[in-house]
Specification:
The protein has 10 helices and no strands. By secondary structure, the protein is mostly helical. The chain has a single domain, classed as Tetracycline Repressor, domain 2. The longest helix is centred in the middle third of the chain and has 28 residues. The chain starts with a helix and ends in a 6-residue tail after the last helix.
Amino acid sequence: MITDTQDKEAQYIQKVTETFMRYGFKSVTMNDIARELGISKKTLYQFIDNKNDLILRCVITAMTEEKDFITNIKKQDKNAIEKMLDISAHVNQTLRKINPAAIYDLQKYYPDAWQIIENYTHEFIFSNIKENLENGMKEGLYRTDFRTDIIARLFIGKSQLILNNTLFPYAEYKTSELHVAHTIYHIRGVASSKGLKILEKHIKELYN
């Protein structure tokens, strides 16, 4: 049973996460957070130990929500490409809300939180991309002339390149646009002629 306190804390975490995504993690102070939540710092420290603890909780909550979303998409009566595009569209919408500084801050200043994202990517995302490839092969939408584990790891590797500020300077490239290009590149690289027709049918949805 969820208590009123737990519900209130969940609301706090959601609002704080939105604040971090908008302004970055480093520049936002605990005073800023308390003011954003409309509570005192004393009240804030009743449910978190420090800023690092708060960031960890925000990241864990976000990753849990992402896992739940992907799991629900996988249960839908759609083919592998449609599921891939649905997940990509969701990720794209999320990326549009994230200030690139937030990603940089996590990587440089909050390694424990960033490691949670890394684990999520290399374990959960990897296994789901591999499963999607296997299902797409069974459906005749993906070719069968490649190893799914290799392509899944290449997908992960390319997704990490998107966050490389040297390769793709934040001032010149939007992360959401890079993500769309990455998704299309991936599907086109593995799709059969049947799969390519489905991709072309839905491709415009990624840009909405």
